[in-house]
Design a protein that fits this description.
Elements lengths: L2 H21 L4 E6 L6 H17 L4 E6 L6 H8 L4 E2 L3 H10 L2 E4 L8 H11 L3 E6 L7 H8 L3 E4 L2 H9 L7 E3 L12 H10 L7 E5 L7 H4 L6 H31 L3 E4 L6 H10 L4 H4 L2 E3 L6 H8 L5 E3 L3 H7 L5 E5 L9 H4 L6 E3 L3 H4 L2 H10 L1 H29 L2
Parallel strand pairs: 1-2, 1-4, 2-3, 4-5, 5-6, 6-7, 8-9, 8-11, 9-10, 11-12, 12-13
């Protein structure tokens, strides 16, 4: 082979490689998420998984198909993810079905958008996956068919994973995968610092507490009349509200009287400002109440997280604020009810079983106050425990995103 022939072959190979690279465009993913805005945890699902996609598939084009991103949430997402494409209209969704390569169902309390996964499967035949859900519904034939034909399904709690196995589901990759909200990194430091300063709360010198009724009073949040099923839920909440909040008050009293920390009572959803005042703050003794701050306004996920990361830890009756705390290295205790889904059990999956309490088991309720107090008195040990759990979460995030990457066509 002479030199001229060699150069010609090299040039041809370079052109072919260039053409191939041009044809191999970045993957396009539909993310079905963003279920509602009345809860900072439901808001947090979306920026969490968007952060993971940004981190592990930086070249991918992501088109978010939301249910609700009003109330300032769309602005929140666009500020943090300026390249994000949001599809809302039937035309935009139809175009996305045609142009995108993969459908990703994001974290939720159940298989929230099953019908849209089914639509994708039927209309396109292209691959899809399900990321970070709990199994809360009966597994009928349609559900079975959708899950079995997914590239993967990651359950956010071990109980759901075991239930799926017992149901005989046959998805090729069926494993534990962290709730998307573990990866939230939103911040509104300016608002958080302003609030803390105005209320005499110093960084590292306060703990956050979140109240909750057994059932979220959505009828009140949406200003609608109660339906018969709402009345049943409301009666259950009223029946158990003192039982559920008394241990939190005892923990607040113990922290105030035995440490130099203050307490911030704050909400995860729009109904909990009132609950925090009536069930936690108002009944406290006067000497305790003077060092307790009540947040009277709802906030968005960015300001809440900027507050949590400046705290010494969090405890209460909610789930996603603890998730976002652990995702950012902040110690967090979860108290759960039999009335809820199984998501709280994920604390055992990530190595935090000592920080999980069942409010319907007296022996576990009795351990809440000493556990909160131990967290308050030994912040270094609490942070180390949170960091160990976060290491495991990070490991699973890497592994699950690796599965997604391999599943792309």
């Amino acid at each position: 082979m002479n030199r001229r022939h060699f150069l010609q072959l090299t040039l041809v190979a370079a052109i072919q490689a260039s053409v191939h690279a041009a044809e191999k465009r970045a993957p396009r993913i539909i993310l079905r998420n963003s279920w509602q805005t009345v809860n900072i945890g439901d808001i947090g699902h979306t920026p969490g998984i968007l952060h993971l996609l940004e981190q592990y598939l930086p070249d991918a084009e992501v088109r978010l198909w939301p249910s609700n991103i009003g109330d300032g949430v769309e602005e929140l997402l666009r500020k943090r993810f300026p390249k994000l494409i949001i599809i809302k209209t039937p035309e935009e969704i139809k175009t996305a079905f045609s142009e995108c390569d993969f459908f990703l169902h994001g974290s939720s309390s159940g298989f929230s958008a099953q019908k849209h996964v089914a639509q994708w499967k039927t209309e396109t035949g292209k691959p899809y996956g399900i990321y970070g859900i709990s199994l809360t519904q009966a597994v009928g034939q349609e559900t079975r068919d959708i899950i079995d034909n997914a590239k993967f399904i990651f359950f956010r709690d071990g109980h759901s994973l075991e239930a799926a196995k017992q149901e005989g589901l046959k998805c090729p990759v069926m494993e534990y995968g962290p709730d998307g909200a573990f990866a939230v990194d939103l911040r509104n430091d300016e608002a958080a610092k302003k609030f803390l300063s105005a209320n005499g709360l110093e960084e590292g010198k306060f703990m956050c507490v979140i109240p909750r009724y057994r059932f979220t009073p959505y009828w009140k949040i949406h200003n609608k009349p109660m339906k018969p099923e709402d009345e049943v839920k409301n009666n259950r909440s009223e029946e158990m509200k003192e039982h559920d909040h008394a241990p939190l008050r005892e923990a607040i009293v113990a922290v105030i009287r035995q440490t130099d920390l203050k307490i911030l009572v704050c909400p995860e959803d729009q109904s909990q400002m009132e609950i925090g005042k009536t069930m936690l703050v108002d009944p406290l003794p006067d000497d305790v109440k003077s060092r307790v701050v009540w947040r009277k306004d709802y906030w968005l996920t960015d300001e809440a997280l900027s507050t949590y990361v400046r705290s010494a830890g969090l405890f209460g009756l909610e789930m996603h604020s603890p998730i976002m705390c652990i995702g950012n290295g902040v110690p967090a205790i979860v108290c759960r009810f039999v009335d809820q889904t199984y998501k709280g059990l994920m604390w055992r999956d990530i190595g935090l079983g000592d920080w999980l309490f069942d409010m319907d088991v007296p022996e576990e309720v009795a351990r809440i106050v000493p556990t909160v107090l131990a967290m308050a008195k030994d912040p270094a040990a609490a942070k180390a425990k949170a960091a160990k759990a976060l290491d495991f979460v990070h490991q699973r995030q890497r592994e699950t995103m690796g599965v997604l990457k391999k599943s792309l066509p």
